[in-house]
Each structure stands twice: as structure tokens, then as C-alpha cells.
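Forwarding the complex inputs:
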Amino acid sequence: MATAYFMQLLTQMSEARTDQEHMEIYMISKPSIPDRTNYILGKSVQSPLSEMIWTGKQLKQLGAGILAIPCITAHFFHDELQDEVGLPVMNAVEETAVCLWNRGIKHVGILATEGTIQSQIFQRVLEGYGISSEIPDKEMQQIITDMIYHDIKEGKTVDIERFGRVSAELNEKGAQVVILACTELSLIKKDFPIGTGYLDVMEVLAAKTVQKCGRLRAEYRKLITL
Amino acid sequence: MATAYFMQLLTQMSEARTDQEHMEIYMISKPSIPDRTNYILGKSVQSPLSEMIWTGKQLKQLGAGILAIPCITAHFFHDELQDEVGLPVMNAVEETAVCLWNRGIKHVGILATEGTIQSQIFQRVLEGYGISSEIPDKEMQQIITDMIYHDIKEGKTVDIERFGRVSAELNEKGAQVVILACTELSLIKKDFPIGTGYLDVMEVLAAKTVQKCGRLRAEYRKLITL
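Prediction (whole assembly, two chains):
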């Protein structure tokens, strides 16, 4: 569903008045690609990388000039993928850091899969921009993991109060902004009134992709809901 | 935007509990393909067919076993496309007729682009199932054309009262059900409370595609909102 929402964001963020003004999109959705988190955490030996490379190469052959991946955990493989496919791959992690840095944010909270959190892909990049980060404690992380893998991926409803509790904990630790660093969590922001104080990494990825390939509508230039 | 919504429908209609249970989707969105209605009405000599065939062949090469086109007007080229690509192409027009026939509907109204209306692709297929049809008069058709080409494709809001007036006119002429026979009109049903008495052709296309490639969730077996 994150892929469908990413397509929607690309379309609605594009400044276009006719079909013909929209950018060209080649999309391969291979849900059979092995779970990224399980591999990163060492729970599975099935790496998703080779299928990601195959997919990237197919898209290149179709004519794609830039790749974008609406799965943040998969960014763990960003550099290898880019090298192997030989096309620029949008970097949602880097773009998020730039976006926060531009707004003068110094301290954030991260909501993501365990794969993203444990591999420290966000923490390391953010540090490079002088931004420190908070992650949920073990019990709170379990709530987020359940929401991603049970509620959202299975198409169930989400207990928005529990979600708010985890965010609030990060704010109490000093986070000025909570980043939604998993595209499944972006679906929560889309479908529920979660309030302000968030930065949705998929929105950042979509806006930057539109900027590179087309024209971004003015109203999407600021993405942090403060 | 219709393509993004079609992707969303495929996902939400699929009976799946993990990413890995979803079907594989290859998608090419080429908004540069010449406008179908302009060609069908003779307002343009640029046929979209050759680019549609190219696109279909690319999808076949990627591994697609079935093609589905979330543009109803493009169904004008259905048979030629199927022959040239050499893959089965889902037929949203035929599937809609079957769906209406199964429910015992005898008389429908058609809301669509002028290309779809004038080429009689729906009227002819429906007749084969013993279903007669009503189309909007000239002035009412202009309202629908404006909604499709100006409001929806440009991402503007829709005057839902005017939309209701056109539907009501078809009901007054005897239509038991009004079919939304343009995927841009499906977006109106998605975003506005248009009430009951409609059959959304894109929903039919999505449900039938899921049935062929995966498992359809039980709640999507009945699509006419009577």
C-alpha cells in the first residue's frame, strides 16, 4: 500500500494541468522480495539485495533515469544498489536530514522498523548534520513494530492513542520533531489525525523526486508539520 | 492519479496478511501517451496505440502474465492491443456488463469521456447482454467532460451538486444504475459522498484483476452500491 500512496504523492505534488504534463513512472512492485528487517537483524539469511538489483536494472532498461524506493528499511542497501545498478538512487535518509537541518532542528525522535533503528541508518546520517536523535525504548518499539507488521500491512485499523503515546515519549526525551521513518507509518499520517510535530520521510522522498523529475507544487515545499 | 488509485484498489482488495502474500505488479505510467478521446473523436491524428503496444510489450518482457489498463477510453484499442502484445488484456467493459447482468440490471446510464461515449464501446457490449443504456445530453456531457479534463486531471475540487444533477437526469430517463465509465470519475466516488446507485468500472477492473492474480477479499464481491 505504501507504493500506491507513493504514486499518489508523486501525482498530487506535481504541478501539472494535463496527463501529458506529468512525469513518466516505471514501477515494479515485488512484494516477494525478502523482508528487509529480518535480514538486517540476522533473523533470516535471505538478503533482499539481489532482487533489488534485478529490479533496479529492469527499471533502468525501461528508461528510468532515477530510482526511488518507497521502503525506508531498504535504504540500508542504498549505496550497493546504486553502484550495482549504475543509476542515481534517491536517498530518503539524506534528504530528511537536509530538510531538518534547513529548519534548524537539532533533536529528533525516530519511529521506524527495528531494521532501520538497529542499523542506525538515520542516526548516523543525522549526526553528520549535527542532529541528535531519540529512539523508543524496547516496549514502545514493540508497539510500533506491531503497528507496522500486524495492523498496517494486514490492512487493519490502528490504535491511534497508542501511537500518540510512543510519540509523546520521544517528545518528553527532547525530540522537537518525530520523524515517520517507515513508509507504513506514512499511511497512519495519511489516514488518521495524528496532529503536528511530525516529518513524514515518504513525503520528503516524494517531494524531492518530483523536484528532480518535474515541477513541485508550491504547497509542498514545507513538509514539517510544526 | 487514476493509476495510483488503481494500485491502491489492487492492494486493498487483496486478501493478504504480509507483503509477501501480495501479487507482483509491473506498472508503466506514460502520461505522454496521446489523449485517447481526441484521437477517437478525430480531433487529433496522433494515435495512442503504438505507444500502448510498446508499453504492453515491455510489461510482458518484465514477466507480466495479464495486462490491465486503468483508462476506460483506452479500451477502444483493447482487441488490437491484445493481438499485438500477445498477452490477455483485462476487459473492463465486458466485466462491467457481466457484473450488471449477474445482478439482473436491464437499463443503465453511462458517465464517461466523449471518446468512450461516441465510440459506443459500452453501449455495444451492454446490448449483447440485453442491457440498454442512456447517455447524458449535450449540455450534461459538457459538465462531465469539464469535470474529467479540468477539475480532476488538474487536481481541483469537484462541484458534487452538478455531478448529482447529471446522474439524476440519467435516472429520470430510466437508468437503474449509473456506471462510472471513466477512471477519473472513480476518483470522485473515492473522494466525495455521491450516494448509492453507481457501479464504478475501475472497481470492477481491480476486483476482476485480483480474482485472476490473487485472492479477492470477501467484502469486494458485490460492487454495485444499490
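Chain B has two domains: 2-91+205-218, 92-201.
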